[in-house]
Design a protein that fits this description.
By secondary structure, the chain is mainly alpha-helical. 64% of the residues lie in helices and 4% in strands.
Length: 477
């Protein structure tokens, strides 16, 4: 048996999130992106006439991914500055280009432009996973579009719905979340080359006061790193409001997933619908018979974590004094990657759950039948009146029979015998009680709503993102 590692290991990486999302926020991706930004800066400056040679740029390009992390760590211990540590490590690998690395830039040129690139790609990954979950929920809703089930308001039995319609409620929450993610993607731009306080003063000095070249420099950098444009005005950093908005969108997904996970846990308690349960899976170390809703519970647990993280970027945005302070840095290093790792894990679980939901129609029917007689009383009343009865007398008879039947259910634990009581009452002799209890008469347009919602809302989304939607990811633990 291997011994546990000595130091804390983030479970988001070790247990929950995908390898793709973990790698996106890893050191290799981060620092190679810094280097790509230094290449873009040098290329743009050379194109605008600064004395930077093709040989220097070629040297920078050749060493983008050849990062000596040990050397960078040693530099940071000495310099106490992460960006300058990597400038020096890059310079060691590129001696000819060393004099022009980071020319005119401030640290946020690489840190913030990199974060924006990673945010955008991470949001695209989240969008892909959202679409994957929507596809599975749509399949489930279609299969059960007309399966009548007991609905609840205030967690009390209410007018029936269908299981497919309930799944559409879960799906529509995710549709709203997808709209937010799409909006965030549309409104993320580059920081560009704004300089120390956002005035571009250092670049204006480099280009001898030529404002047009400074503007063109920023345009070129945006194009080279894959952005159409930069934020129009900033301080030293991009607006920290962006982080707050992105985390609010992730929190929205977490809220939706938590709602679905809680609903499923309630339904599993009622033995109507269960999450997947593997052949050799153990539900409890003590109670061997148990089939605990482990996936739903984990999804809710991780979702709560994401929801809690949304407050940090909001407070950071609120406390960035004037052109910037550095109290955002440590917080952002923790919050942003972990929020994406956690929501990635949430959506992996959600897709896994939605792909393997187990439905028990007979239990659903039994639970519905236990409450349906009470809900059918208005229909029975109308049918009895149509057969010539007195509405007020019939109402009073139903009231008395209903109260008596409810008392037996609650006080004696007996089955609901309201129908038997009504059948024995001469006032209801001419009423077809079985027909009055057809569940299809109580679900309204639920099946048609499922069809319309899927055709008009979900199917266009699936068609739009079919090529981009991620495949099924493994639930590792």
């Amino acid at each position: 048996m291997t011994q546990p590692a000595e130091f804390y290991d983030n479970p988001l990486i070790a247990r929950y999130a995908s390898a793709e999302m973990s790698a996106l926020w890893g050191p290799k991706r981060k620092f190679s992106t810094w280097r790509k930004l230094w290449v873009a800066l040098a290329e743009a400056e050379a194109e605008l006439g600064l004395p930077i040679t093709a040989e220097q740029i070629a040297e920078l390009r050749a060493n983008v991914d050849q990062i000596d992390f040990a050397a960078a760590e040693q530099y940071e211990r000495r310099l106490r500055h992460d960006v300058m540590a990597h400038v020096h490590a890059y310079g060691d690998a590129c001696p000819k280009a060393r004099p022009i690395i980071h020319l005119g830039a401030t640290s946020c040129y690489v840190t913030d432009n990199t974060d924006l690139l990673l945010l955008r790609e991470a949001l695209e990954m989240v969008r892909s996973r959202l679409v994957g979950v929507l596809g599975k929920l749509a399949d489930f809703a279609r299969r059960h579009r007309d399966l009548a089930c007991l609905a609840f308001t205030h967690m009390q039995p209410a007018q029936p719905t269908t299981l497919g319609k309930r799944a559409c409620l879960w799906a529509y929450d995710l549709v709203l979340d997808l709209t937010e993610i799409e909006h965030r993607l549309e409104t993320i731009h580059a920081l560009g080359s704004k300089g120390t306080t956002g005035t571009q003063a250092s670049f204006l000095e480099l280009f001898g006061g030529d404002h047009a070249k400074v503007r063109r420099l920023e345009q070129l950098i945006c194009e080279k790193i894959g952005f159409a444009k930069s934020f129009p005005v900033t301080g030293q950093t991009y607006p920290r409001k962006i982080d707050a908005q992105v985390l609010a969108a992730l929190s929205g997904i977490a809220e939706s997933a938590h709602k679905m996970g809680t609903d499923l846990r309630l339904l599993q308690h009622r033995k109507e619908v269960e999450e997947p349960f593997e052949t050799e899976q153990i539900g409890s170390s003590a109670m061997a018979y148990k089939r605990n809703p482990m996936r739903s519970e984990r999804m809710c647990s991780l979702a709560r974590f994401v929801i809690s993280l949304a407050s940090s970027p909001a407070m950071t945005a609120a406390t960035q004094w004037l052109e910037r302070t550095l109290d955002d840095s440590a917080n952002r290093r923790l919050v942003i990657p972990q929020a994406f790792l956690a929501i990635d894990a949430v959506l992996i679980l959600y897709q896994n759950i939605a792909s393997g939901l187990v439905v028990y129609p007979r239990v659903i029917a039994k639970n519905l039948d236990a409450e349906l007689p009470f809900m059918a009383t208005e229909n029975i009343l109308m049918a009895a009146v149509a057969s010539g009865g007195d509405r007020q007398d019939l109402h009073e008879r139903i009231r008395r029979h209903s109260q008596a039947a409810a008392a037996m259910v609650k006080q004696e634990g007996a089955p609901n015998d309201l129908l038997d009581r009504l059948a024995a009452d001469p006032a209801f002799t001419h009423v077809d009680l079985d027909a009055a209890l057809d569940p299809r008469k109580f679900v309204g347009r639920a099946p048609e709503q499922v069809d319309e919602f899927l055709a008009e809302v979900v199917d266009p989304i699936l068609a739009k993102y079919q090529a981009a939607s991620s495949g099924t990811a493994e639930v590792r633990v």
